[in-house]
Amino acid sequence: MLTEFGKIFIFFLLGIGLVAAGLVTAWLLRPARPYPEKRATYECGEEPIGSPWVRLNVRFYIIALIFLIFDVEVVFLFPWALVYRNLGLFGLFEMVVFLGILFVGYAYVWAKGDLSWDKPTPQIPTLHSRVHFSEGDLQTPSEQRR
Amino acid sequence: MMRESIDVYTVLFYFFVSITLVSACVVVFSRHIVRSAFALLFTFFGVAALYVYLFADFLAITQLLVYVGGILVLILFGVMLTNKQINVDIKTGTLHIVPAIILAAAIGGTLVGIAWSNPWMVLPTSSSVKTTAPQIGELLLTTYLLPFEVASMVLMVALVGAVVIARREKNKKETTRDS
Questions:
Q1: What CATH code is carried by the domain that includes residue A62?
Q2: Distance (Å, whole) CA B151 – CA B15
Q3: Where in the sequence is the domain holding A85, given as residue range(s)?
Q4: Is residue A36 part of a domain?
Q5: pLDDT in tens, B86-143
Q6: How many domains are there within chain A?
Q7: Within 10 A of B63 (CB to CB), how many other CB atoms are there?
Q8: Does the distance separating the beta carbons of B160 and A105 come in below 8 Å?
Q9: Residue A55 touches partner B, C-beta closer than 8 Å
Q10: Positive or negative, the Cα torsion across B19, B22, B27, B32?
């Protein structure tokens, strides 16, 4: 068994070695002439403003939480998949119960709309004023620019 | 020949132990929380390798699947979510020193006590050990059927509870839209 994991470890070392070889080769071949503009964070040709560490939307966290639960479910599924032939219909029924209970939670999350991508709601600026405006003034700034 | 292969395993064992210990120390002592989170990756990998040394192959894969693949991602998302002020680094600090010392001493004492009193046995060599996953599956579906189904309930409750807690409050959003 340890030798099987030894094979995995060899793959692991090969992966690390491949990345390291690429980086070292690039480091040996490339000329190193840094200047401030070159060292700046690349942001699609724009000048980066402020911190790159922005606050993520909470939707990523919720999706990660749901993923984690079903990750643990897969851990239970795997040993069952190895032996369900020996146990016959009874084993199948047990797993159906297991998945059925979890499906209740899944259905709840789905029905409550936590799986749908929580989009930000932009506030479109509107003008509430008693002063009489002409048509051109009532347009939003983006429309005026056109 | 046999002697040589054992030596390779021993060297690798100390390699994994040192990775686990060093990265765990980085997790605890690093002042930057993102560095702590990334060092936790190596700690989880090292612990998985130690499980392999204990012939607990299923546990090792579970460690990789759940801790590295799931919990670490969740921790990183948590780190990314928690910075409230821009341009202020989140630093880890030492808080509640006295309760922490008491708790750490209690846990450490328990671990040392277990390690001291446990009759350590030498595990059989790799050739005589089979994979543990089919045995775990059979025991889960026969002897430990009730805990197996209860685990499903616990997972369901955890799913619903975590999502309810983490969900953005809908009422709050509507009031901000009005104002």
A1: 1.20.58.1610
A2: 35
A3: 4-111
A4: yes
A5: 555 556 667 788 999 999 999 999 999 999 998 887 766 655 567 788 888 888 888 8
A6: 1
A7: 21
A8: yes
A9: yes
A10: negative
Distance CA B52, CA B23 (A): 19
| Identity at B33, one-letter amino acid code | I
Considering only CA atoms, which of A120, A118, A119 is closest in space to residue A63? A118
Q: Does residue A76 lie in a domain region? A: yes
Tally Cβ neighbours within 10 Å of residue B69: 15
Looking at the domain assignment, is residue A30 inside a domain?
yes
> Can you list the domains of chain B with their CATH numbers?
1-92 (1.20.120.1200)
Structural element, H or E, at residue A25: helix A2-29
Q: What is the ipTM of this complex?
A: 0.73
The pair phi, psi for residue A76, each rounded to 5°, is -75, -30
* A72 and chain B in contact, CB less than 8 A: yes
pLDDT tens digits for range B51-79: 988 888 889 989 989 998 889 988 888 88
Any domain includes A131: no
pTM to 2 decimal places: 0.73
A72 chain-B contacts, CB cut-off 8 A: 66, 70, 155
Q: How many helices (H) and strands (E) does chain A have?
A: 4, 0
Retrieve residue A124's tokens. 């479109």
Give the pair of three-digit tokens for residue A128. Answer: 């509430």
Per-residue pLDDT of chain A (146 residues; tens, 9 = 90+): 557 788 888 998 999 999 999 999 999 998 888 888 788 777 777 777 776 666 667 778 888 888 899 999 989 888 888 888 888 888 888 889 999 999 999 999 888 887 777 666 777 887 776 666 666 655 566 655 54
First to last CA, chain B: 78
Phi first, then psi, for residue B83 (nearest 5°) are -80, 115
Give me A8's structure tokens. 């995995």
pLDDT band for B178, please (50, 70, 90 cuts). Answer: very low
**Closest Cα in chain A to B67:** A68
Establish if A67 touches chain B: CB-CB under 8 angstroms: yes
